[in-house]
């Protein structure tokens, strides 16, 4: 008997069950899975924390600048011009129309230059590795946050272009997650990663709103510094291409290198043929095409974010700081959706109804889209804060849509092409941003022109688009 044991020492070690329960409470991941998830989560959190710190202050700075310019123009042109909206000239139709125009086109031009490089980057990431593109994309995103004066903010997208843009940065992190997690673990891991921007949204927005009461420039300038600090840690992300290759089917051998050095023309031709061959699987799989077409709707929450603040501020006569709290409310519900509702629903569908992964993801996607339809319609018709808040909560339930569609598409994709698929998804979402920004701004302007009660037209359009997507999901089932 050991010296420290006596007759009063329990025969069973009661400390071990506690340690076992603690161990079982944590995900049973390997060291590489923990490293990838923690670093990816930190990058996602820091970039999005900086983004949400600066979103509402940027809108207020834009509104103040436009309002001051409009006041000066009234002084020169017509002193008897009506102020509109109970005398608050900054909430008048001309100011709000210009604000929607600038913000909408900024969202579009932020992603347009990067769109040209994203898909080639994805193909290269499948060939040579993920890590260089994580570093490049996060660094470019951080630099682009240092904005220029009004109207020149449209040029900030040029700084994002070398890194492939924000969407590419997100999707390359998702690719790394898909590399190291199995099919059964993948959806849950992606939802956990996707919860980090929501946590950043919930935490950063009230901090930003509080600082805005003193000076909007403070949170606006702090935002890009946080993004830059997070980007520094991208160099610690491990390379996971070999993990993806180890799970891919054995087969095609690499083509031998040409015996002689090719000239420039033949090299370009060869690279173009390889690019077409590497993306061929996208165009030859109808279900992947459907996923690519519908996933761009996932940007509606991002494209409507700036407009939701502006819409609530104008329609309910709130300050922009007060309207920004809607983002925190929506974020809390989204976080509960990702961390509680979706895991419980997934567990129920798999354990009790014995659904396969594809069937389970389709059910979640359909519920998410239906919630989006209800939410956007409530926001469109809202005449008070209660209806508007309920609409935002329903929109929160639609947030899992993109992750589930990505997981569905991954089921139809060979492991060696996952980065290309995810990058194609980022391109699809970028196209959605390009289309949604000006479209939402135009619809908002049209609604304001008809009357303040019609200023929610963009949200009615979003509900209609979600209804069309719900029909498209019917063709993604395993037996369809």
TrEMBL record:
It comes from the Eukaryota. It is found in: Membrane. CDD domains: MFS. The chain crosses the membrane at residues 32-52, 133-154, 166-182, 189-211, 217-237, 288-313, 325-350, 362-379, 385-409, 421-444, 456-476. One of its GO terms (cellular component) is membrane. GO terms for molecular function: transmembrane transporter activity. This is Major facilitator superfamily (MFS) profile domain-containing protein.
